[in-house]
Amino acid sequence: MTATPRHSLLLVLVFSLGATPAAAGAEEKKEAVFPSGWPWRGVGVKYPGFEELDRLEELHRTEGIRHFCLVPKHRALARKKGITLQEAWTESLDWMVAALARCKRLGITASVLMDGFPVYENWSSARQTSEFWDTPACQDEALERIVELVERLPTGPELGHIQFFSEPVYRKEDPSGKRRVRVSTPEVWPAFFERIRKTVREHGDFWLGYSPGPGGLRRGYKKQAVFDDPRIVYNAHMYSPGIYTHQGLEGKEHPIEYPGRLEKGRRFWNKKALRESLQPLRDFQLKCIESGRPVPVIINSFSAIRWAPGGEQYLLDLADIFQEYGWSYSYWCLGGAHVWDPDYGNVFDEKTPWQRQFVGKTSVRWNTLRTILAPRGEEERESGEGSDRRDP
To answer: Which of 7, 82, 314, 317 qualifies as a cystine partner to 271, CB 3.0-4.6 A?
Structure first.
C-alpha cells in the first residue's frame, strides 16, 4: 500500500516518539540530588558550651544564619558536671533533639556530628590509637550507640546530615620524640564505615557524612571511589597550614602572617596555595560530575585561631573557593574553646584572662562571618560545576 501524506506523518511521529527516550537517556546526565537547603553556610555549636538554645533563634534572626552543625561532646559534659558517661550521653542526645526541634520551628537546617566513642566508662576516648581501632568491642559499642542516636532523629527537612568519626586517624608517636607523630587512616576504617552505613540505612534514608581520612585531610580523596549510595555527603576539614591556624597554642610559634612564607620559608601560602591544598577533594568532585554522578561536598570544620595575623583574609579566601566549587561549609565554632569563638577579640594576650577578652558581636571575627555566611544569589550552582580556574 502506498503511504498517503497522512500515513507518512503518522509513521514519522511513531518512529520519532519511539526513538526519543533512548536517545535522551544516552545523552542526558543523571539529575543531581542534594540535601535540604543545600548549599549550607553555617557555624558549629558545641555542647557543653552552647546551652542556651534561644541563641539559635537570635543568631538566625540577627545574623541570618540558616545552618548549624550540632556537636554534642558527652565526655566534656561528664567532666564538667561530674556525672557518668551514660548520664552525659543521654543528656547530650536530649540537647541534640531539642536543638533540631528549634531549627524545625525556625525553618532552617542543622547537621549532627558525633565523634565521642566509645561511651563505656572503662574506656578512654583514644580514638586515635590502637586502643579503639584494634578493639572490635569498641566498634561494636559504637554501633549500638549510633542506633540509639539515629532512633531519636527526626525525618523532616530540618536535619541536614549526620556524621560519625569525622576524623578517622591512627596516630603513632615516636617514643624517642625525635620524629614527628605519624598519622594514617586506620586499616579497619573502610569496613567499619560500611558497617555504620548499613546500620544507619536500617533505620532510615538519612544523609550520612563520610571522611576517608587520615583525620579530616583532603588527601584521602586521591584514591576514593564514590559510594553506591546516593545519600552520602563527602566531608573534609580545612586547617592547613596547621602551623598558621594553630599558632600560639601550647607554645607554638607566633606571630605568623597570612599571606606569607611559612613552614620555615619552604612555601608561600596564599589563596593559590589554599586552592592547591584542597585540590584532591576538588578533583574527586569533578570526577563525579564528569561521570554523571554529582555529589554533595562539605567542609564540615574550618577556622583560624582568632589572633592569627591575616586570619580574616584566610577565612575569606577559603569561603570564596568553597562558594566557587558549590561546597557547603561550617565555621568552627561557638561554645567551644575561646581561641576559635568569634565572641572574643583578635589580640594575642597571655596576661589577660581569656574570659575578660570577650567582646561579643563587635569582634573582627564576627564581621568576617557576616560576609562568609551571607547567602548568595541564584547564580550559585549547587552541582559545583563551576569553572575549574586557578588563581594566578
So the answer is: 317
251: exposed, middle or buried (Cβ count in 10 Å: 0-12, 13-18, 19+) = exposed
Q: How far apart are CA 40 and CA 376, in angstroms?
A: 11
Q: 302-340: per-residue pLDDT in tens?
A: 999 999 999 999 999 999 999 999 999 999 999 999 999
382: in domain = no
Which residue do the cell numbers 543528656 mark? 91
Contact 186, 171 (CB under 8 A): no
- What digits encode the pLDDT tens for the residues 207-236? 999 999 999 999 999 999 999 999 999 999
Strands (E), the chain: 41-47, 67-72, 109-114, 159-164, 170-172, 182-184, 208-210, 232-238, 260-262, 267-269, 297-302, 328-334
Residue 12 lies in a domain: no
Half-sphere CA count of 5, side-chain side, radius 13 A: 0
Residues paired with 208 in a beta bridge: 162, 232
DSSP string, 325-352: HT-EEEEEEESS-TTT-TTB-S---SSS
Element (H, E) at 194: helix 189-201
Task: Express each pLDDT in 277-295 by its tens digit.
Answer: 999 999 999 999 999 999 9
Spatial distance between the Cα atoms of 261 and 251, rounded to a whole number of angstroms: 20
Residue with cell 526519543: 20
- Domain contains 210: yes
Range 176-195 average pLDDT: 84
Parent domain of 267:
35-372
Could you write out the DSSP letters of every residue in 253-267? -----SSEEETTTTE
Mean pLDDT, the chain, rounded, equals 86
Instruction: Report the alpha-carbon distance of residue 145 to residue 199 in Å, rounded.
Output: 11
Beta strands in 52-165 (DSSP E): 67-72, 109-114, 159-164
- Cell 554533595 locates to 296
Q: Which of 200, 183, 224, 105 is nearest to 148 (CA)?
A: 200
At position 245, the amino acid (one-letter code) is T
Query: What are the residue ranges of helices labelled H in 232-342?
Result: 242-245, 271-290, 311-325
Q: What is the pLDDT of residue 353?
A: 95
Give how many domains the chain has, as a whole number. Answer: 1
Residue of 257, 318, 10, 40 whose CA lies nearest to 158: 40
